[in-house]
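INFO batch 0412 | record 1 of 1 | parsing
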Amino acid sequence: MEVINTIGRRKAAIARIYMSEGKGQIIVNDKDYKTYFPHTKLHYIVEQPLNLLELKNNYDIRVNLNGGGMSGQAEALRLAISRALVKVNPEYKTMLKAEGFMTRDPRVIERKKPGQPKARKRFQFSKR
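INFO prediction complete | emitting tokens
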């Protein structure tokens, strides 16, 4: 039984996963993913690559997640699962890429500039 490990990132979130053959359990930071992610939308995001390839009950996945918010973590986990599935079978890549699961979303928060309250917001202008 081979363990496959990959990393997925989104915004500030990093998901390190360890995937092995099993019954379909997804454990995130020592909790079931349905308790870790409170919303059903996030459950759907995490399950997307497995549902697309109809492999939901074939693999057990252990996840170490840190950084970012809930949706960023869910999308980082989706990318990590997709990358692991491609390691298992390279033929899955075309289907996953077509759905956009193999692309790392590069958007991150813009840095705060000096002399401004936020990245783009300016202090209020006073004429007098």
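INFO post-check: Residues 4-99 form a domain with the Ribosomal Protein S5; domain 2 fold (CATH 3.30.230.10).
INFO record closed
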